[in-house]
Design brief:
single chain; alpha/beta; Rossmann fold; Double Stranded RNA Binding Domain; 4 domains; 4-stranded parallel sheet; 9 helices; 34% helix; 18% strand
């Protein structure tokens, strides 16, 4: 059985983190921790997290054993089987952070993906995030209903939209000045495959925006998982006469 990790963003500012080891691997982790504002301590300190960057195998395993006995969560550099947590490659567009992890299997692949994303994401992405945060009250005023708000934001952030996060011309002020709520709708999606990767871009976008999914019982869970976690799932054999407010999708094979 494959074991999956749950990605988490942990605030480390002012918190102790143990760092054991010397040399470039330890120095790289030190820079990462300092960037996050962590207080770096040795094994004699008290911390919930520890990074073991000791190159000697016997010394590293001994340190891991001691720390695990203390209940400390461990990241063991170049030893994925000994890791309780891993450190991802990071794309930083403060306050937007994109973390890329491979479960410790291939740091090189994570780094390559990070470099590709660095070229795709505009430097202004952080500004867009801050502007959206500042405009929360105005957005709620224009779109009082949560479903309308999600659809409007989803449409605006789609490719070529006024808030397209891959565009350096995104403007929350301009979007609020011209946007209108979309009407409720029921969209039928006929699946040609059980593989979610065979969804078209439009189908994937609609699933991500839908408030509820009406679907045949034979629609694969992998397809349903492409929708928002809070979207209602309703099993039925035919599209409903009254799908309800917001965006509804009927999925059929």
């Amino acid at each position: 059985m494959t074991l999956y990790s749950l990605p988490l963003f942990v605030r480390l500012a002012g918190r102790n983190v143990m760092l054991l080891g010397e040399g470039e691997p330890a120095d790289a982790k030190r820079r990462l921790l300092e960037r996050a504002g962590a207080v770096i301590v040795g094994e004699e300190g008290q911390a919930a997290l520890a990074i073991v960057a000791i190159e000697d195998e016997a010394l590293a395993q001994a340190a891991i054993t001691r720390l695990r006995a203390r209940g400390v969560l461990i990241n063991a550099v170049d030893r994925p089987a000994a890791c309780d947590f891993t450190l991802p490659a990071i794309v930083d567009r403060d306050p937007v952070l994109i973390a890329i992890g491979t479960g410790g299997v291939s740091a090189g692949l994570a780094a390559a993906l990070r470099q590709r994303l660095e070229t795709l994401l505009p430097a202004e992405l952080g500004t867009l995030a801050r502007d959206l945060f500042a405009a929360r009250a105005a957005i709620r005023e224009r779109y009082p209903e949560g479903s309308d708000r999600r659809r409007a934001l989803g449409a605006a952030m789609g490719q070529g939209g006024a808030l397209d996060p891959f565009s350096d011309a995104a403007s929350v002020k301009r979007w609020l000045g011209r946007s209108d709520a979309r009407t409720s709708a029921l969209v039928k999606i006929t699946l040609v495959s059980q593989d979610p990767d065979d969804l078209t871009l439009r189908q994937a976008r609609l699933l991500g925006q839908a408030d509820r999914l009406y679907h045949r019982a034979d629609v694969p869970a992998a397809i349903l998982d492409r929708a928002r976690a809070d979207a209602l799932r309703i099993v039925c054999d035919a599209p409903p006469a009254d799908p309800g407010s917001g965006l509804s999708i009927f999925l059929a094979r």
